[in-house]
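Entry 14. Ran structure prediction on the chain below.
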Amino acid sequence: FDAVWLMLMTGDLHAAGELADAVAARPPSPRRRFIRALLAATQGWIQHGAAELRSLAETLPPDDDVALYGSCAAAAALLCAALGEDETALVWARRAQAVAGHLPDVAAPAQQAMAWSYAKTGQIGESLALLAGCSPRRPTAGSFDAELLTIRGVVRNWAGDFAGAIEDLAAVLRWQRD
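Output, structure tokens:
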């Protein structure tokens, strides 16, 4: 499960998909259900993945396995944002943020979903405020910097801040090339 999770987090969807049968062969568990929901979403079954993640998160007591609950909530938020279900995305992103604490793989996806959903619902100022800590001047990208700065670049473009959008997106390209 950890291997598939890492492959998904790094964008190696093909390699993660190759392990789908191995994941399905494992005994049922909340972690297996979580990974299978993510794999379904990467196969194009985004609505199914989002519904499964929401259902799983609703059955998990947040205090029992904070990382799994937070990851479910954050992933559900991202998928809901991708589906245009922005109000639902905001609800799940807030739930993820409430437990994120020191878990960047929960906090950053929740922040991504919130930023997208704020922007898509016309709350550009809230989106940009949420991403204010992003810096295109860092020599290298840290965890999730490229994803968050990409969102800010797009939102700045929507807001008419073309110079800011170019600065953010040029940094992401620079980091990618490096």
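The first helix runs from residue 2 to 9. Will compare against last week's run tomorrow.
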